[in-house]
Amino acid sequence: MTNKKIYLLILFIIVSITFNVNAENYGGNLKIKMNKRPLTLNPIFSANQTEKNINKQVFDKLLILNSQGELSNNLTEFWESNAESTVFKFKLKENVYFHPYKLNGKEIKIEQRKVTAADWKWSFEYLTDPKNKSPYAGIFKKVIGYDDYQEQKSNEITGIKVIDDYQLQISLKDSYAPFIYNLAKEAAVVIPKKAVLESGQKFSLNPIGTGPFKFKNFANNRIKLTKNQNYWKKTEQQNKLPYLEQIEYYFDNSKNLNKNYQEFDLYQLSYDQLINYYHNNQRDENYNLKTIINNNLYFVAFDCRDNDINESEYKVIKHQIRSSLNNDKFNQTIKLNNYIHNENMSDGFNFLNKISAKTEANSENEVNFSDNLKLKMISNNSNLSLQISELLKTELKKFNVKLEVKNYNWNKYLELLKSSSQRDLFMMSYSYENKFEFIADNFYSKSEKNYFNYENRRIDNLIDYIKLSKNMENQNIAYTIMEEILFHDNPYLVIFKGVDLFLISEKLSNQKILDNIHTKDKLELFYFE
After folding, report:
1. Helix 435-443 and helix 472-488: axis angle, to 10°?
2. Distance between CA 106 and CA 109 in Å, rounded?
3. pTM
4. N or C: which end of the chain has fewer CB within 10 A?
5. Can you list the domains of the chain with their CATH numbers?
6. Angstrom distance (rounded) from CA 183 to CA 458
7. Region for residue 133 given its phi and psi (left: phi exceeds 0; alpha: psi -120 to 50; beta: otherwise)
8. Structure confidence by residue, pLDDT tens digits, 471-518
9. pLDDT (tens digit, 9 = 90+) per residue, 377-427?
């Protein structure tokens, strides 16, 4: 045999082995048990975790956040903005199709399902239509024509323009570079106009999108999704996605953890099931207990308005409370309520980790609190808030600090946060999808959500700069400066990160995607060995 033939034979064997390995990754039915049953699958209304998870499989956005929390193209080839950050232009991908659907009983041909700029304009106007009353309509409130459209003075948002089939333009009233992050939000997806208008309310239970999986049916306590054969996305190794043939979601919030979890590949644990898991010391070598980060934040913080506490005491109090909360009893309490201490966060929230890092206390000189130091705290009356309040009171008592806590219902609590000054501490929960919103809401002195009454002129200037700058590199420099400022000067005592707890089958491969908040819902990357 000649050298050439030997070389070709070896090459054929290598290619065959590579193909077979990749081929084995494809197929399989992923079974997921979720606690909450979805009420709607229309992305402009979806609210609970299950609804959002399913919608991420069915629908696609123009932009996404990558594993580092940075903007990345998705259904766009590229985008650009003008120097003033008032006009954003998008070049759309041309090989994107809506899932198959029927109109008047007839299957729509694939060439008629191609996604164009007109589909994006209609989808964004559908989201913001005042008749729909979507809680996410405000995504486009800075766009020219939004107000007239909301007030039904116009039948379109004039600031959203179709240039041609694959070019879209969005114009804002004022300079605001962070607007681009809105297009990576969960509700900013593309939807087929004809399918929505034809099916009416049925679209909420029979969604049609462009994502890696298409909706098949919703029967009893199960939703079935099947593989989108025309999905456009590939891996870095050019493997066509998705790997899985179908996904089945089941819904159950029973208190007991029975052996039926072995029927599933991902099994979400309820509060009672987690207690059952811990108390009975149940272990299964074929399943891992995994903590998966979500977007929810829960924090305890100081009100920064002038009070009777001097600066040295303020620093020590923060340090003592942070230290006292970081104990086994406290961590167990918040974990059972689906939160973890911020120090345990995974990649994807590094920015928040730095901001909430412990303030350095003067460890060389012992500082005593003032005699009979009293602190006032207000909180909502949720179960978790009540438990945290009691733990805080117990721990602070050890340092001769008396904590007076008043709990209110949510409406009264929010009213007091905005108006009352009778507090030293308060608790709050939020949900954030990107770091700009987190900083602008909490630390910008003019923000309505700055319940700390925090003021720092340098932070204000840097936030204003980011609003105007379209240069991502310069924005990152501004974020780095703010990290340093807030590391040494922030009102937080502790931040807890929301988590979901799952039992996960060892058979499921590529579980590393669950370790990052920005990749945890990319189920198209899962496969079975």
Report:
1. 50
2. 9
3. 0.85
4. N
5. 26-59+211-286+506-529 (3.40.190.10), 61-203 (3.90.76.10), 294-499 (3.10.105.10)
6. 28
7. left
8. 888 988 998 899 888 887 888 877 788 888 899 999 999 999 999 888
9. 999 998 888 888 888 888 778 777 888 999 999 889 988 888 767 788 888
